[in-house]
Amino acid sequence: MAVSRAEQRAVTRRALLDEGLRRFAADGYHRVVLAEVARAAGVTKGAAYHHFDSKAGLFRAVVAEVQEGLGERVAAAAELHEGLWEQLRAGCRCFLAAGTDPAVRQILLVDAPTVLGWDEWRALDEESSARHLVEALKALAAAGIIADQPVEPLARLLSGAMNEAALWIARGGDPGAAEQALDRLLAGLRTPA
């Protein structure tokens, strides 16, 4: 059975993304060579440039996939719980636990902010996961579980704190201690019963 050009392009792109993810996670952006990624993926260097224009283009696509996957994991962890408060806690805990994932650590937390720049990195985060936090906080405020307040600055504060804690975990910090600190931080947001 013949493979169409579109199918072959998709297979090539997927092979480059998979190998790029593996290499960027293991070696960091600056030690990855696009020609070596192409060779390991079983395609030509020209094919890599055709699909991504540059190493930075491949990295950007890998970051978007890792960011999207993390957002999906966080949302799925939250959806396992009934109550809004438990959903927030589960989503936040899942994000912290992602700090032990080499791809999240190296690609999202270490390299992406410097390689892509802060604004582009934040935009990718907004598209994939930060919006879930904003939605959760709005629902909590509407339900009276947290004080009615501007949600945007609160989401930024929590997101920044969790990014730093996930990076701390990635560099050898104690996940249990981070989880306890997160629970204390979140408990401070709750309105008195």
Automatic annotation (TrEMBL):
Matching PANTHER family: HTH-TYPE TRANSCRIPTIONAL REGULATOR BETI, HTH-TYPE TRANSCRIPTIONAL REGULATOR RUTR
Report keywords, A-Z: DNA-binding, Transcription, Transcription regulation
List residues of the HTH tetR-type domain. Answer: 10-70
User: Pfam families per the record?
Assistant: TetR_C_41 (PF21351), TetR_N (PF00440)
Q: SUPFAM superfamilies from the xrefs? A: Homeodomain-like
This protein is called Putative HTH-type transcriptional repressor AcnR
Ranges annotated as DNA-binding: 33-52
Q: Which GO molecular function annotation, any one, does this entry have?
A: transcription cis-regulatory region binding
Supply the InterPro entries for this chain: Homeodomain-like_sf (IPR009057), HTH-type_TetR-like_transc_reg (IPR050109), HTH_TetR (IPR001647), Rv0078-like_C (IPR049484)
State the PROSITE patterns in the record: HTH_TETR_2
Q: Does the keyword ATP-binding apply?
A: no
